[in-house]
Amino acid sequence: MLPWIATLLIMGANPLELELPTLSGERSALGKLAGEKGTVVMFLQFDCPISAEYSAQLVRLEKQYKPKGLQFVGVMADQQDRAELQKRAAEYGLKFPILHDSKFVLADSLGAKTTPEVFLLDKQGKTLYSGRIDDSWTARMRRNPAPKSSDLVAAMDAMLAQKPIQVTRTDAVGCPIERPQKKAADSKVTYHRDIAPILQEKCQACHRPGEVAPFSLTSYQQALRWRDLLVEVVEKKQMPPWLPSGGYHFRGERKLEEEEIQKIRQWVKDGCAEGDFAQAPLPKQFAEGWQLGEPDLILELPQDMVIGPEGKDLFRCFALPTNLPEDKYVVAYELRPGNRRVVHHTLHFLDFEGRGRKLSADWKANPKDKSGDSGPGYTVSMGVGFAPSGEMGGWAPGISPKFLPNDTAYILPKGSDFILQIHYHRTGKEERDRTRVGLYFARQPVNRFVQPLIVPGNFLLIPPNKADFTVKNTVWLAKDALMHSVDPHMHLLGRKFVMHITEPGGEKHEVIRIDDWDYNWQEIYFLNQPKRLKAGTRIDIEAVFDNSATNPNNPSSPPSWVRFGEQTTNEMCFMFIGLTTDDNMRIQWRKEENGRLFGRNAKVGQR
Questions:
Q1: Rg of the Cα trace of the chain?
Q2: Are 312 and 228 in contact (CB under 8 A)?
Q3: Where are the domains of the chain?
Q4: Cα-Cα-Cα-Cα dihedral of 104, 110, 116, 118, to 10°?
Q5: Residue by residue, what is the 3-state secondary structure of 490-546?
Q6: What residue spans of 227-295 are helical by DSSP H?
Q7: I need a labelling partner for 131 at 20 to 30 A (CA). Which of 6, 57, 348, 589 fits?
Q8: Helix axes 55-65, 151-160, angle to 10 degrees
Q9: Architecture of the domain defined by 3-176
Q10: Rounded to whole angstroms, how far apart are CA atoms 250 and 205?
């Protein structure tokens, strides 16, 4: 039979009549598993983070609606090993029947294209509703900050009440269901020669077993399976995650060149040719353990942090006492995530006054978690809950630890605390983490200490329905300094951020430009080479906020007035610049080119 005829027959078949194996191996027609009043067919995929995260919610819904006559049936439409899928289903607590659709017959019959995607069928097998479970996601990697529509629940309730379903079709958000690929003809672009080197250098730091990415990209079969998603995310420049689109070069840049994007696009367009294995690069070797050697001081969460299975991403702060009897000078730090599946990124701050410990004690006395989170530390909406005494960089997947330039260090006063802010992803099941930070102390005398220069964007309120609210500020550096890093900061309404410096002689430089801000991917950017700034250097920052209804990240619907503040529904605008000065006095800036100084005139590290 011709393939296209078989496809038409499948699409015209009653889905209840199709017979597939369950994950345990027994074959069953979907109709034998159907509920008395209807069936909810759910296309799922454990390697898709959005699909996996819905697991706990689907378990709850199944318990609620099964007694009402609706049967939930999961479908794994892929060619993975059935035993492995069964094992992972048990990890996520999925006890409803799950069919293995390795030949995509049920997916083709219903027209499923995405995971997670649900189909509400009546007793005759007619689709009454299809699409997303709810509106918790506006796009892949874009959470809805203010979800409102529980589409599947609304459809089930209307069906059971024998009322018309108001919305019968929505677009599912998640990962594509990849059908088998026909063998490619000869192509100028092949996997082993052209694509594998790109994936090694730009993707495998995260997309390999045991790392933070939800799936691996270390083989031809893996790249083939995720081919359409691969093209989509590199064309949109969502992956590798790298926000800067202009300015200086920074350490650990993860962006793809246009030529590399074109190769991936062409490879998929031409049919994903595998090519000659003899042309494949040698497997990339990744360092295990502490990459900079054994640290001088290891700071660790005092106990496991338990991250609940579902809900918004968690930003958790941990006050880690150093218990140092004397001042130390830190020339490098290295972060070792305890659970790379959930540790998205970290930011590091210093606390000379014990404020983080007090917040931790208050949180322990009055826990506020409602998502199943428990453990040490405390949670605040944004930041660390107070103005930190200093900062010490951060970590994101793909960043390799490095030593500061010679004669340069972070000062760590005796008795101070290291404040570790961890951004946790949820995976659909309970997870545990016990992250560690290693600090490396100077062996030689140090004369320059890194300190932050904070340049605020000046605003009090952002009006509603304003898509291009612009915030600016200009300051002048009061003394010579060496610039090591920049760290722009906004919240959910942020869209763009740019910083320029103008040298006293008039030469202007773009330091960093971000044209598509994403709060979830913020980090501290270290220059490849520190930049010397003369006294009188002009610093300009400009940020654009989108407080319109078309902004998918807007936490208010309809848009409302937004004020400056720490909360999720507030906004901020700051540029944190990591500098060193020759005399180690706290850096100052002038509001006017020859005006008065702003800033505290004290030695770095003084309380």
A1: 27
A2: no
A3: 3-176, 191-279, 297-446, 451-598
A4: -150
A5: ECCCEEEEEEEEECCCCCEEEEEEECCCCHHHCCCEEEEEEEEECCCCEEEEEEEEE
A6: 227-235, 258-269
A7: 6
A8: 10
A9: 3-Layer(aba) Sandwich (3.40)
A10: 17
Q: Which class is 451-598 in CATH?
A: mainly beta
Classify residue 554 by its DSSP letter. Answer: -
C-alpha dist (Å) from residue 202 to 23, 70, 120: 35, 46, 40
- pLDDT surpassing 60 at residue 445: yes
Over residues 178-192, the mean pLDDT reads: 80
Q: Using CA atoms, how far apart are residues 488 and 456, in angstroms rounded to an integer?
A: 10
Domain 297-446 class? mainly beta
Q: What is the pLDDT of residue 2?
A: 37
Task: Kindly state the tokens that stand for 271.
Answer: 């049919």
Question: Tokens 């994403």 label which residue?
Answer: 518
What integer best gives the mean pLDDT of the chain? 89
DSSP three-state, residue 106: helix
The tokens describing 81, both together, are 């090993």
CA distance 330 to 299: 13
Beta bridge partners of residue 472, listed in sequence order: 542
- The angle formed by the CA atoms of residues 109, 110 and 114, to the nearest 5 degrees, is 120
Q: Which two tokens stand for residue 381?
A: 């909406």
Q: Tell me the whole-structure pTM to 2 decimals.
A: 0.78
In the three-class reduction of DSSP (H, G, I as helix; E, B as strand; rest coil), residue 196 is classed as helix
Do the Cβ atoms of 174 and 116 come closer than 8 Å? yes
Domains 3-176 and 451-598 agree in fold = no
Q: What is the DSSP string of 342-353?
A: TEEEEEEEEESS
Q: Which of 398, 447, 449 is nearest to 284 (CA)?
A: 398
